[in-house]
Amino acid sequence: MNRRIASLLLATSSLAGCDYTGDFLFPEATPLEDVWVLTDPDGEFLVPADIATVEDIAANTIYAEVGAPQTTANGGITADFIGTGGPVCLWVDPEVAFWNQAVFERLDPEVRKWSYPDNVYDDGDIELFAGLSVYYTGSPGVSVGNFVVAYEDSLGNEVPISLASCPNQVGLQEEPAASGRGSPEFCTIQSTDLGISYTILLQTFSTPRDDSRLSFGFLLANGSCESLRNLVGSTTASTDECLIQGEALAPNVDDVEIYYGFDALNEAGRIWDRSIDFEGEFCDPEARLDRFCAQELEEKAEAGEFCELRDSPTQDNRCYCGDLNDTPSGGAL
Q1: Dihedral, CA atoms, 139, 74, 247, 114, nearest 10 degrees?
Q2: pLDDT tens per residue, range 213-248
Q3: Mode of pairing for the β-strands spanning 75-82 and 35-38
Q4: What CATH number should be reported for the domain whose range is 30-272?
Q5: What's the pLDDT at 312?
Q6: Which of 46, 110, 249, 313 is most deeply buried (CB count within 10 A of its CB)?
Q7: pLDDT score at 256
């Protein structure tokens, strides 16, 4: 037998004898479903809410969690609504918020706010898609799909075409594209077809590394997303973070409930301690996030606690700012 073939057969047989599952590549399992369907409290389709005040936003925001997929398949949540004949805004805000640390210009008032590192272990990301239900290729509650259909050209070639109504292209609807770790994503379907079913897909892109549970706030509203931004006075990606507040849910093994409205969430005591204070500092252009981070460390030291960043934190050792020791120095590789 050829020596090279013999070596290959030996290597193959060695691999076959290993009990290799690759489980270590996937996040920790949680009691949360990684694929599920979001409905109203009665199990029916969602209905776009009429928003006239800031209080209406809080009252109509839906709060929930999604687990990390345990396979290579995509995870996420789907929800359906019936077209109104007018514009409808879809807005989702995953926990918590992410920023790039300003390493050098700490004396510059414009960047001093960001001089502390972010806690990257508590952030998650959701991708927002939507379109006519007839185009959705997934099986709600079973598997995640998309809004891509195959078109056969004159040469018989299949060409994939996306028929999704969301996301919007940058500038297409005079709204900025919003994406990234912990960042809100939103989209206006400018003219929904009256009486026709639409499907929303909140696809899990990443879950927080500290607990593998991604909490989020979701709002389905009549009108444009730009009108919501105007209502709360938001003009930048950072200030968009404060349109939905309280979306950082403290993990509870026995509680996988859906909360309809901020009051219901608050009464359940599921909001991470100080998360709303943190968001206020993050999205206020005049606030000083660096002072919040310094105070956070000082309070932990006075209480004899520490910031748990990598593993499941508790209300006592939960921190929103990262470890200053992770700050890169000049000339470092």
Answers
A1: -150
A2: 999 999 999 999 999 999 999 988 888 999 999 999
A3: parallel
A4: 2.60.120.380
A5: 86
A6: 249
A7: 79
205, 203, 226, 245: which is closest to 93 by C-alpha?
245
pLDDT at 173: 47
Please state the domain extents for the chain: 30-272
